Amino acid sequence: MLQDIRTAPFLREMCDTTANLYRLGWDERNGGNISYLIAEEEVSDYLDISKVERTVPMSFDAAELAGKYFIVTGSGKYFKNVIKDPAVNLGVIRIGQDGHSYEILWGFADGGVATSELPTHLMNHMQRLVVDPKHRVIMHCHATHLIGMTFTHNLDEIEFTKTLWEMCTECLVVFPEGVGIIPWMVPGTDAIGEATAERMKGVRIVMWPHHGVFGAGTTMDEAFGLIETAEKAAQVYTIVCAQGGKQQTISDRELLDLAQAFGVTPRPGVLQN
After folding, report:
1. What is the pLDDT of residues 126-167, one digit of tens each?
2. CA spacing 20 to 30 A to 179: which of 11, 45, 143, 159?
3. Is beta strand 212-217 parallel, antiparallel or unpaired with respect to 137-141?
4. Is 228 a catalytic residue?
5. What is the number of other CB atoms lying within 10 angstroms of the CB of residue 28?
6. What is the pLDDT of residues 176-193, one digit of tens each?
7. Cα dist. 96→55, 156, 181, 271 in Å?
8. Among residues 117, 157, 166, 231, which one is catalytic?
């Protein structure tokens, strides 16, 4: 007998995470989206995977992910409403064998579809799975201070990364590979997905200047915590700038000592010996 999907861990995680992102002000209105790769055995405990509610065509070729299952946020759906009505605002989908469609197994009960950023998510899932077979989550949000920082800080990845590392001691430990940055681009296009995935070869967090951030992780907590840490550093940067700028900072030598103590390798080119 199938279990009630409302008790599924992957559904509860999506509900809790979207609620937290809305609470923090990072996903206003229908801003932001999440996709979470889930194993077939996780899905089949709660859904009849032979029953397809609808099939939705895609122009993007996701053949590399054919047969994979995801729970995703819906197009035009407000994060604040997910926890109240997950069956309308979320969907469990399976990528079709042709790679050019996805099958809705549950959710989007009002006739909705997956986020318009789905191709970008799938491109980044494909890229991160090459780098890390344990990868599962892509999260896009409008983290306030990180967006603000893209207006006031230069957009060189090395310098942006170093500034974040200097703002909070834990940053180097949490994202030693630093951050990626792409140029401003129109969202919802294959071009922005391709540019983001290219940066995801070496990092787990990519800035979309004046728009938001894409983060990747092996779990929902990891992806959320990654963005949360970078956002805290950007908030400190905002406060430091408002107070007149830095009078002192964590030195390169101290950051290298930190990396050694925690067994992480800093991105080459950021710190000087």
Report:
1. 999 999 999 999 999 999 999 999 999 999 999 999 999 999
2. 11
3. antiparallel
4. no
5. 15
6. 999 999 999 999 899 999
7. 8, 39, 31, 45
8. 117
